[in-house]
Design goal:
Elements lengths: L10 E7 L4 H17 L4 E7 L5 H5 L7 E6 L4 E4 L5 H7 L6
Parallel strand pairs: 1-2
Antiparallel strand pairs: 1-3, 3-4
C-alpha cells in the first residue's frame, strides 16, 4: 500500500504485519498519523502481511511483528512494536519533530 508519493528526499517505509491483529492495525494507524504530521507528502508506506507471504520474513530478517523498516534514506533502520510511542519512533527514524 502506498499512501503518498515519495519525493527525492522522502522516506521509504515498510511495515511488516501479520494479518489484522490489534497490534498490526495500531502500528499502521500510528505510522500514518506520524507520517502525516511530520512527513506530509514525503513518504511511502508499504505494508507487508506475513500471513499472506511468510517467506518474506526470512528474506528481510523479521523476527517480531509488527516491524517497521526505514529503507530510505539510508542507513536502514528497524523499529519493533505498535509505534505508539511517537517520540521513540521519531528518534528511531531520525525525523526531527515539527
Amino acid at each position: 500500500m502506498t499512501t503518498a508519493p515519495m519525493e527525492q528526499d522522502g522516506y521509504n517505509l515498510r511495515l511488516y504485519v501479520a494479518g489484522q491483529t490489534p497490534k498490526s492495525l495500531a502500528a499502521l494507524a500510528n505510522l500514518k498519523k506520524l507520517c502525516e504530521t511530520h512527513l506530509p507528502g514525503r513518504y511511502t508506506i508499504e505494508v507487508i502481511d506475513l500471513m499472506k507471504d511468510p517467506a518474506l520474513a526470512q528474506r528481510d530478517q523479521i523476527v517480531a511483528i509488527p516491524t517497521l523498516i526505514r529503507q530510505l534514506p539510508e542507513p536502514l533502520k528497524r523499529i519493533i512494536g505498535d509505534l505508539s510511542n511517537a517520540e521513540k519512533v521519531l528518534v528511531g527514524l531520525d525525523i526531527a519533530p515539527s
